[in-house]
Amino acid sequence: MKNKLLLIGLFIANFLSYHFNSLAGDAKKDTVFTGIYVTGVHGIDFKQKEYTIDFWLWLKYKNKDFDFIQNLEIPQAKSISKSFSTVDTSNGVYLLLKLQCVMKDSWKIGNFPFDRQKLRLSIENSQFDSRSLIFAPDTLGQHYDRRFMLSGWNIDSFNITMGNRVYETGFGDPGLAKPHTEYSNFKVAIVLNRAAMGLFWKIFLGMYVAFLIAYTCFYIHADGIDSRFGLSVGSLFAVIGNKYIIDSSLPESTSFTLVDTLHGLTLFFIFAVITCTAYALKLVKQGRIKDANKFDMIAAQTLLVIYVGLNIYFIHDAVS
């Protein structure tokens, strides 16, 4: 009986010890109330996978050991420029910063130019991990200047969340049992969608004109071999050139994008025009001129309807 009471007593003591240690650990944490006001987003560079963001950042906390001026960490920032900072320590710590960051990010270009992009920004303290510091949002007021709207883009959403960023390393700390560290972070996600119809015609107009030039071969007499083949082959190279120009402004992608789809479709149909021209020429050589003209008219209408229909389908799929 005494052994049972002893075991029960040890269990209760261990439980209370763990509980109070846990509470003591939480008590050591200081909450940093954080707010942001974005004044501008610009310099979106698809090729270099980066953009520039200007914003005001303020932090309110009690622990004066949190030196955010020296230890402010913005992951994925290529460069950070501070143009203004002020600190008020009369009642805790109130820190206000004006920052400009060049951020590295990944772009989704599968539906370019009808793409939606998410710009990500996160704030951490490089000195104190989540055992000592946690962020909480200051959500009062607006978080961005509605006048900073990017030309050709619309803001779909602006979200602020808190979380922990996990690093599978101890950064050389011998006191850690395993190489695992968590830092509290303040995260901002801006979702942009492009008003792209004007840009679409700007980059694809040359491709469509090249296809129409090849298409007019059907209305040239079937025995005009030089004119028909010359126009078709010239259109083929024009489409290829147009694609290289667009690809030069986009990051490399292993997936098949809308740009690849529309250019590939156009190249295939120009090749179909060349094939139809070769067959019509064969009919002319056999003395079947009426059959050649009839074939040209049927092929012209069939190819045009299929080409336009497939373009509408792929563009609608990208927009929706």
Order of helices and strands: HEEHEEEEEEEHHHH
Overall average residue pLDDT: 85
- Helix residue percentage: 40-55%
Overall radius of gyration: 32 Å
Number of helices: 6
Amount of beta strand = 25-35%
Low-confidence stretches: 1-27
Number of strands: 9
Shape: elongated
Structure description:
- The chain has 320 residues and is of the alpha+beta class.
- The chain is 41% helix and 31% strand.
- The protein contains six helices and nine strands.
- The chain has helices at residues 2-28, 68-71, 197-215, 225-247, 258-285, 289-319, and strands spanning 30-45, 50-61, 72-73, 77-88, 93-104, 116-125, 133-137, 153-167, 181-194.
- A five-stranded mixed beta sheet has the order 4-5-2-1-7, with no helix packed on it. Strands 3-6-9-8 form a four-stranded antiparallel beta sheet.
- Strand 1 and strand 2 (50-61) form a beta hairpin.
- It is elongated, with a radius of gyration of 32 Å.
- It starts with a helix and ends with a helix.
Keywords:
alpha+beta, 320 residues, four-stranded antiparallel sheet
What's the structural blueprint in terms of helices and strands?
Elements: H1 2-28, E1 30-45, E2 50-61, H2 68-71, E3 72-73, E4 77-88, E5 93-104, E6 116-125, E7 133-137, E8 153-167, E9 181-194, H3 197-215, H4 225-247, H5 258-285, H6 289-319
Parallel strand pairs: 1-7
Antiparallel strand pairs: 1-2, 2-5, 3-6, 4-5, 6-9, 8-9
